[in-house]
Design goal:
The chain is about 45% helix and about 15% strand. By secondary structure, the chain is an alpha/beta fold. The longest helix is centred in the middle third of the chain and has 18 residues.
């Protein structure tokens, strides 16, 4: 009976049919290689019509830079080694001159995007953010600002005492181009209350995405796993992302990564390994049938596993990421340049192509 059910589920996946949460539990228990084959079939199906019919042969990446405009944060997440309080001697807020220097360096290597995120600073006014966005748009019109995660927007709405729709709309008018999926962690409130009790809840995270998609801003979706959550929690997270995509349709990509426990308050007895990462990425590709792009996470897993992940459902290698501060604060410090990324993609049997945030090819 078990074999018969597995055969039927395999046929369902290969046929491109939508799977249920119960199906996902069963798929999770498959041998890793078998799950990888199924995920790769879904990847090929999702990308078959892309890039003039060459989507199955192409793996994309972007040249961008993370800019953390401040490390001051008042939500004190247990999994974060980056945040500081205003009392800490190493707290900061970047000046426009410092940001310009970073953008000049990015432009010099052909970069097209910044990932702009910070802590939940309790005192910065809305004018600071709007002036920053206007400044970047006017001086660097070729750079997309992929910025401010859903928890930040919920923080803004509360701090500025404005409706969330007004805040998102004003940021877009000032020059915001898209929204990252940061702060998703696990979209199960029981889990969130344990790891980040002061951060927005699951419904509030999804509310930001629905409003952003409604005003024409695209976004990514993410999952950080391997801490206090269960397998059922991970699948519930995927279900909520898929349901939101059915409603608003604005997610361009999904990225998952494993919790990095070094230097953080949150501790785990057994850090999540490579096999578990590949298993979850593969399952996400199969489950998220309405999100076209899945990004491998070489920043946390390392370049070699980022390359292997291309055989487990991923079609994108993420970014050159000239600068990264949050994950590296937890002890993970992998770095790659564009040439190294392209070499890894070619060695995996694919054609490397640069893209923008909307997965349009640039070269």
């Amino acid at each position: 009976m078990v074999s018969l059910n597995r055969d039927r589920l395999t046929e369902k996946v290969l046929a491109g049919e939508r799977i249920s949460s119960d199906d996902a539990v069963e798929l999770y228990g498959l041998p890793l290689e078998e799950l990888g084959v199924l995920a790769n079939s879904r990847r090929d199906r999702a990308k078959a019509a892309s890039y003039a019919g060459s989507g199955r042969e192409i793996v994309t990446y972007i040249v961008d830079r993370n800019i953390n405009y401040t490390n001051v944060c008042n939500v004190y997440c247990k999994f974060c080694a980056f945040y500081r309080t205003e009392r800490d001697p190493d707290h900061y807020i970047l000046s426009l001159e410092q940001i310009d220097q970073k953008l000049d360096e990015l432009s010099a290597v052909g970069g097209v995007q910044i990932l702009m995120q910070g802590g939940h600073h309790p005192k910065l006014p809305i004018e600071w953010y709007l002036e920053l966005l206007n400044h970047i748009r006017q001086k660097y019109p070729h750079i997309n600002v992929h910025g401010f995660s859903p928890p930040e927007f919920q923080h803004f709405a509360e701090t500025f005492r404005m409706p969330l729709l007004e805040v998102v709309s004003r940021f877009k008018e000032a020059g915001l181009g898209s929204i990252p999926g940061g702060g998703g962690e696990i979209l199960v409130d029981r889990v969130r209350k344990r790891i980040s009790p002061l951060k927005c809840n699951s419904d509030e995270w999804l509310e930001v995405m629905e409003i952003a998609h409604g005003v024409g801003l695209k976004s990514s979706a993410t999952m950080m796993f391997g801490h206090v959550e269960t397998i059922a929690d991970r699948i519930e997270h995927l279900q909520r992302i898929r349901d939101q995509q059915d409603r608003s349709g604005g997610f361009t990509a999904f990225i998952c990564w494993t919790f990095q426990p070094q230097h953080t308050v949150l501790k785990v007895s057994h850090p999540t390994g490579v096999v578990e990462y590949l298993r979850m990425q593969a399952l996400a590709r199969i489950f998220l049938d309405n999100i076209e792009n899945i990004q491998s996470s070489w920043v946390t897993q390392g370049p070699a596993i980022g390359q292997v992940a291309l055989k487990y459902g991923a079609n994108d290698f993420g970014s050159v990421m000239m600068e990264e501060n949050v994950v590296s604060s937890a002890g993970t410090t992998f770095r790659l340049n564009a040439e190294q990324i392209e070499s890894l993609i070619r060695d995996a049997g694919y054609e490397p192509r640069r893209r923008n945030n909307w997965y349009e090819l640039l070269n």
